[in-house]
Design a protein that fits this description.
The protein is of the alpha/beta class. The chain is 47% helix and 13% strand. It is built from twelve helices and nine strands. Helix 5 packs across helix 6, helix 6 packs parallel to helix 7 and helix 7 runs parallel beside helix 8.
C-alpha cells in the first residue's frame, strides 16, 4: 500500500487517527518509535526550531529541507502543516505542494486564516489539479480558523464553519480541520453537515477521546503542544541546572527516553 493510501485509510469511517506533531527528524523518529500510525508537522514548532515565529515567517525552502530530514528517518506517512501555502497565488501554492509530493509526503494542512474562504478553495483546486497530473492521491486537510481566530460572533460560528467546510469539500478537500472547537455538540453538528473526516485540535476544554470519536471526530492533532511541552521541560531543566540542583532531579524527565543514536542509526 502506498503512503497516500495508508494515510487516507487512517481517516476511514469508524476510525479516529491520533496524530502527534513533530518539528524535526529526531522528534519525528521518536513519534514513530512510540507507535504512531502517522506523523504531522507543526508549523509553529518547525518555525521555532529554526528561530522564527509562526505565521509564514519561515521560508518554504527551510520548511522543505526540514521535511526532507524527517522523511529520511521515518517510514510511516507524513503530513506537512503548510500554513496558507506561503503565497496568495494558487498556482504558486500548487508549485510548492508539488515539491512536497515529489519528496514523498502523504498529506498537507492548508488554512484559510483571515483570508476570504474562496481563496483557500482556489488553492485546493490548484493543488488537486497538480497532484492529479502527478498521479498523486495527496490528502488535503483544509483548516477553517473561524473558532480559533473568532472570525464572527459566537452564535454564528457554527454556521460559518459549516459553510466553509462545504465550500472546501466542493473544491476537493479530503479532510476538514476545525481548531478551537471544544464541545461535542458543535463537533457532531460539523461532522454531520460537512461530509469530510473532521479534525479537532487537542485543546483546553475538549472532551475525552472517546467522546470525540462518538461525536464523529476522525482525527485528533496535537498541534504545537508536544513541542511546547518539550521546550517547557528544557526550560525547567536549564533553570535547575543553573541553580545547582542535583543531577537526578535535573535529568529525571529524560528517564525512559530511547537512545536517540540507536533510533537515528540506519538499520
Amino acid at each position: 500500500m502506498s503512503n497516500f493510501a495508508a494515510f487516507r485509510d487512517l481517516h476511514a469511517p469508524g476510525k479516529l487517527l491520533v496524530l502527534p506533531n513533530a518539528w524535526d527528524a529526531a522528534s519525528a523518529r521518536l513519534v514513530e518509535d512510540c507507535g504512531a500510525s502517522a506523523i504531522a508537522t507543526s508549523s509553529a514548532a518547525v518555525a521555532w526550531a529554526h528561530g522564527y515565529a509562526d505565521g509564514e515567517a519561515l521560508s518554504p525552502s527551510i520548511l522543505l529541507a526540514s521535511v526532507a530530514e524527517i522523511l529520511r528517518v521515518v517510514k510511516i506517512p507524513v503530513s506537512v502543516d503548510s500554513e496558507a501555502g506561503y503565497s496568495a497565488d494558487p498556482a504558486k501554492v500548487a508549485d510548492y505542494t508539488s515539491a512536497l509530493i515529489d519528496m514523498g509526503v502523504a498529506g498537507i494542512n492548508l488554512e484559510d486564516g483571515t483570508s476570504p474562504p474562496d481563496l483557500l478553495a482556489r488553492k485546493i483546486e490548484a493543488i488537486k489539479n497538480a497532484a492529479h497530473k502527478k498521479g498523486a492521491d495527496l490528502f488535503i486537510n483544509a483548516r477553517a480558523d473561524v473558532y480559533l481566530k473568532k472570525l464572527t460572533t459566537p452564535d454564528a460560528m457554527r454556521d460559518e464553519i459549516i459553510s466553509r467546510g462545504k465550500l472546501y469539500k466542493r473544491a476537493g478537500a479530503d479532510g476538514f480541520f476545525a481548531p478551537a472547537v471544544t464541545n461535542a455538540t458543535d463537533m457532531r453538528a460539523i461532522a454531520d453537515a460537512v461530509d469530510l473526516p473532521l479534525n479537532i485540535l487537542f485543546f483546553p476544554g475538549v472532551p475525552s477521546v472517546a467522546e470525540m470519536k462518538a461525536a464523529g471526530v476522525r482525527r485528533l492533532s496535537a498541534g504545537a503542544g508536544i513541542s511546547r511541552i518539550a521546550l517547557g521541560a528544557a526550560r525547567i531543566a536549564t533553570k535547575q541546572f543553573l541553580e545547582g540542583i542535583d543531577y537526578e532531579t535535573v535529568f529525571k524527565p529524560a528517564e525512559g527516553l530511547a537512545n536517540m543514536n540507536t533510533l537515528l542509526t540506519p538499520g
